[in-house]
UniProtKB/TrEMBL annotation:
Keywords: Hydrolase. Belongs to the relA/spoT family. Residues 388-449 form the TGS domain. In eubacteria ppGpp (guanosine 3'-diphosphate 5'-diphosphate) is a mediator of the stringent response that coordinates a variety of cellular activities in response to changes in nutritional abundance. This is guanosine-3',5'-bis(diphosphate) 3'-diphosphatase. Residues 45-144 form the HD domain. SMART domains: HDc (SM00471), RelA_SpoT (SM00954). It comes from Marinomonas maritima. Its EC number is 3.1.7.2. It catalyses: guanosine 3',5'-bis(diphosphate) + H2O = GDP + diphosphate + H(+).
Length: 705
């Protein structure tokens, strides 16, 4: 049985005597505090914090972290106060213990909500001191190792939470060993039958002669490296079972199709030796094309560095070879915990993954502050917790790490929030590209910004990073209220003009009466409601002046569209009006003003609510870019489509889509184009009509399809 003396022996290898004594004192304090308490297994409770300290000692945790590990349940389970711990062990330890204690479970309406709240609290505690999460991870690891004492339903719940939250956090912090242990134990607890069947299948496929083959493989590589005077340690291993299961599950592959079940790790002493070893491995075994990754030149976001290559082994089975230095190996296995190993050892070459982890935690706080609720917060950071990364470059060569599937919008927010908020387009490898383009490793991305630009709600359909999604939502939420108040003010002012009044002339009594009638708190709230279409400006004006005869009302001026109203003025897709068209506005609940062409058939559907109609007019200097579709009828001859497309290729108008909707001798295609005025539209239509094979060009409306 593991004892405090065993712990002290391990600690004496890297901590001074007085610090080891402090850790031992914390153990005896915890032993006394937990006296009489037992775990579900029947063991004395103090064996749990001792085991947590043992796990952290393997990571070479510092004195305060170990002391907090031994005392981490004292505040929660024994009634000893934070002040008492501060008096005994100092403010640093008490703060750590308090941080871990705050991660205890509370009662919530659902398991998802409970998990979200716990994760949110964890992020906030990590921001104060990253060691809080290390203690919590070690605590969870020991709980997983002793999970058999729990009833079946609790086993599954704890295992699921471990796979959803704790293992991904360990991975994000680069703690490979802890992550693998958590995943393997949780997989066996959550899917016991699948784990057993997969283990048997792996043993059946790779188990025969495995020891002999492994030894032979090690000897072959060792002798080849020795011939080149390269010193290195070599280990051959099987990939852990949950990693294999994930690949089979996500990619819908059988065990036979998984490329790298077997793995070789080669650890050397020098940076340049890694690349020399890579040359030896590729000379010895046939490399599989497209399976080489250089994480030394471009480290992962959690600080991980290594060369990865997949080769065909002597028995024809693919195997992944990882090549790294001893320092890289320490960081790869322990991640952020390697920071304390270096700190205690007094090394000056501090691993950068501590700074990376701190930066990540700060980004979590920014997301947390802008998220509306804990569930949205967790949803936004999922992509950060499961990063299959791509690495792209800024124009000046800075590397930006993003999750797989990220777009230029994610990149823009990754560089700076303000760049994200004002981006309008981008160049990928110097070519203009849509903001929805999925980025690939090695690309250079340049973001084009505009001073008055703002996030678009459509970005939420393709932005995937937590930082991007949170900032877009936050900006839109604030901006929508601001826009709604502005439009509401204009709509109410326009309606009040009919009563020969305006908002500024309203009395306090008039406003108070209307607010009370609608149970609204402030005038801004009322204006926002009008701007969003929940209340109608004319009806509110009628309430403010109930005694005025309608026959005396004057006709209000047209509502001018200047293009800067924001997201609460939109253009109907059915008729796609553009500047210069005669238009009418319809106030729709929660959508604001939807602008239609005056002759749009859909306008007739709204005549039952005439008070929601607004006379509209285009502003003098409007330069609104709008999407319309043209239907082109043409003779289907060779190169016809190319001729039509090239007829407008030298203009400033952007073609977003070209779709052939009818084939035959006489064919039809739909050309989606961004246009800013009727003059521009006339120019485009004239150019297309000038193509010899074109018979007819017309604007499309959805109603007319």
């Amino acid at each position: 049985m593991y004892t405090v003396e065993d712990l002290a022996l391990t600690l004496s290898q890297y901590l001074p005597y007085d610090q080891v004594a402090k850790v031992k004192r914390a153990y005896y304090y915890a032993e006394q505090a937990h006296d009489g308490q037992r775990r579900k297994s029947g063991e004395p409770y103090v064996t749990h914090p001792l085991a947590v300290a043992e796990i952290l000692s393997e990571l070479r945790m510092d004195c305060d972290g170990l002391t907090a590990a031994l005392l981490h349940d004292v505040i929660e389970d024994t009634g000893i106060s934070r002040e008492a711990l501060t008096e005994q062990f100092g403010e640093g330890v008490a703060s750590l213990v308090d941080g871990v204690s705050k991660l205890t479970h509370l009662e919530f309406n659902s398991q998802i909500e409970k998990q979200a709240h716990n994760f949110q609290k964890m992020a906030m505690a990590m921001a104060d001191d990253i060691r809080v999460i290390l203690v919590k991870l070690a605590d969870r690891l020991h709980n997983m190792r002793t999970l058999d004492a729990m009833p079946a339903h609790k086993k599954r719940r704890i295992a699921r939470e471990t796979l959803d939250i704790y293992a991904p956090i360990a991975n994000r912090l680069g703690m490979y060993k802890v992550r693998v242990d958590l995943e393997s134990l949780a997989f066996q607890a959550y899917y016991p039958m699948r784990a057993r069947m997969l283990q048997r299948a792996i043993h059946k496929k790779y188990g025969q002669q495995r020891i002999k083959d492994t030894q032979k493989l090690e000897d072959t590589i060792r002798s080849e490296l020795a011939a080149d005077y390269i010193e290195a340690s070599i280990s051959v291993r099987e990939k852990h079972i949950y990693s294999i299961y994930q690949k089979m599950d996500k990619k819908r592959r059988s065990l036979d199709e998984i490329m790298d079940v077997m793995g070789v790790r080669i650890v050397t002493d020098r940076h340049d030796s890694c690349y020399r070893i890579l040359g030896v491995i590729h000379a010895l075994f046939k490399p599989i094309e497209g399976r080489f990754k250089d994480y030394i030149a471009v480290p992962k976001s959690n600080g991980y560095q290594s060369l990865h290559t997949t080769v065909l082994g002597t028995n024809g089975i693919p195997m992944e070879v990882q090549i790294r230095t001893e320092e890289m190996d320490l960081v790869a296995n322990n991640g952020i915990a390697a920071h304390w190993a270096y700190k205690v050892g007094g090394s000056s070459s501090m691993p950068s993954n501590h700074d990376r982890a701190t930066k990540w935690v700060k980004s979590l706080l920014e997301i947390q502050q802008k998220a509306r609720n804990p569930i949205e917060f967790v949803d936004n950071v999922k992509s950060d917790l499961f990063p299959d990364e791509v690495y792209v470059f800024t124009p000046n060569g800075q590397i930006i790490e993003l999750p797989s599937g990220a777009t230029p919008v994610d990149f823009a927010y990754g560089v700076h929030t303000e760049i994200g908020n004002t981006c309008i387009s981008c160049r990928i490898n110097r070519r203009l590209a849509p903001l929805s383009t999925q980025l690939e490793s090695g690309q250079t991305v340049e973001i084009i910004t505009a001073k008055n630009a703002q996030p678009n709600v459509a970005w939420l359909s393709f932005a995937i990073t937590g930082k991007a999604r949170t900032n877009i939502r936050h900006y839109l939420k604030d901006k929508q209220r601001e826009n709604a108040i502005s439009i509401g003010h204009r709509l109410l002012t326009r309606s009040l003009n009919a009563f020969k009044s305006n908002v500024e002339e309203l009395t306090t009594e008039q406003i108070a009466q209307v607010l009370e009638n609608h149970q609204i708190v402030t005038m801004d709230d009322l204006l926002e409601s009008i701007g969003k279409g929940r209340h109608v400006g004319y009806l509110v004006a009628r309430e403010l002046f109930p005694n005025i005869d309608e026959d005396t009302l004057i006709t209000p001026k047209s509502f001018k569209v200047n293009g800067s109203e924001g997201m609460l003025i939109s253009y109907a897709k059915c008729c796609a009006p553009i500047p210069g068209d005669p238009i009418v506005g319809y106030v729709q609940v929660d959508k604001g003003i939807v602008i239609h062409h005056l002759n749009c058939p859909n306008v007739q559907d709204h005549l039952s609510n005439p008070e929601r109609f607004i006379h509209m007019a285009w502003g003098k200097d409007i330069e609104e870019e709008l999407h319309i579709s043209l239907i082109v009828t043409y003779i289907n001859e060779r190169g016809a489509v190319a001729k039509i497309a090239s007829s407008i290729s030298d203009t400033d108008f952007q073609v977003s889509n070209l779709d052939i909707i009818e084939r035959g001798r006489v064919s039809r295609l739909r050309l989606s184009i961004t246009i800013s005025s009727r003059i521009g539209l006339a120019d485009v239509m004239r150019r297309i009509k000038a193509v010899r094979c074109v018979e007819k060009v017309s604007r499309e409306t959805i109603v007319g399809r």
